[in-house]
Amino acid sequence: MDQLLEAAKKYATLFDKDYVYTLETGTMLQVYFVPGFFHHLVGLQKLTDIPPVKKGTRNSPNYIFRNIFNGIITMEDIQKSKHFNEIENRLRHFSQINRLIEFEKIIIDFDSSLIKTKLDADYVLFKRSNDNMYLNLFLKDDGGNPNKQIPLTFLPELTDYYTYGQKVIKILSMTELSRSTTQS
Questions:
Q1: How many whole angstroms separate alpha carbon 53 and alpha carbon 17?
Q2: Where are the domains of the chain?
Q3: Is the pTM for the entire model greater than 0.85?
């Protein structure tokens, strides 16, 4: 199967649930996924030379996701980008997103000043992959409730670049809740 399509299909399996992480501090974080986040999570914004994946007034992230999910935009299309190498690792690891939600540790109060990044995240869920990469899912509050988080970006990294020096705590548990019971 096309790797981009496979990643989109696995990502879509996360839509009908919210994921509640109970932290060792007693804080409970609720994380949810929607189609429009896919574009940035896999790094498609970096492929500026591929018009079908460029965001615009007539090409929203939701529309781009739908075109990927329906096979209109394919892996072959995005591999034509001169910037594809910038997202290749991200896409390869993102296809495991349905297993990646089972994080064991979290960075709280992410401090971007410790590294050279403009990422404005509140939390970073992370774990090590089978090939020893650090898989980092950056979260930001959804603007309403600070305990309700949306994925900001997903960055695999060979080193502990994003985690070093940050305040790391354990995740005690993760519970999946049906979206119909969490929305009011």
A1: 26
A2: 3-182
A3: yes
